[in-house]
Specification:
Layout (H helix, E strand, L loop, with lengths): L4 H10 L6 H12 L7 H7 L4 H13 L3 E5 L5 E5 L5 E6 L5 E3 L2 H15 L7 E6 L2 H7 L1
Helix pairs in contact: 1-2, 3-4
Length: 140
């Protein structure tokens, strides 16, 4: 199911927020770019809304369970639709490239952590930082 701008706007309404032109634009931007990880700054640069309005809208959408945020290395938090949450990334600290962590590798990582510590990770979205193969090769 693809989350639409109307779904996002209804979530804002259900949280008691007024629907303004700025919030409509924010919700349309998030819905149109549903597969992307967006920063509040990137959203505010493409819509007619100040960054504080973007942050507040994202916060309310997150409280409603429709948007989630994560940190991809040392940069600002990124936001994405909750329907796209079960994925993990490898982020290069040198070039900034991000790639998906294969599901089998993630499952092996979780199994290893659980076997070693008894801790059962429940993270639905995270990023591991390090060097990509290209930057590692340049480093040797």
């Amino acid at each position: 199911m693809h989350i639409t701008a109307d779904t996002l706007l209804n979530a804002l309404r259900s949280q008691g927020m007024r629907i303004t032109d700025a919030r409509i634009q924010i919700c349309e931007e998030i819905a149109e770019r549903h597969g992307e990880h967006l920063t509040a700054t990137a959203i505010s640069e493409t819509v007619d809304a100040n960054e504080s309005t973007v942050y507040r809208t994202l916060e309310v959408l997150e409280q409603a369970g429709i948007v989630e945020h994560s940190h991809m290395g040392h940069g600002p938090a990124v936001y994405h639709l909750a329907e796209d949450s079960d994925h993990h990334h490898l982020v290069c600290e040198r070039c900034g490239r991000a790639e998906a962590l294969p599901a089998a590798a993630y499952e092996a990582l979780v199994a290893g952590i659980t076997a070693e510590t008894g801790f059962v990770p429940t993270s639905r979205h995270f990023a591991l930082t390090g060097l990509c193969s290209r930057c590692k090769a340049e480093n040797t």
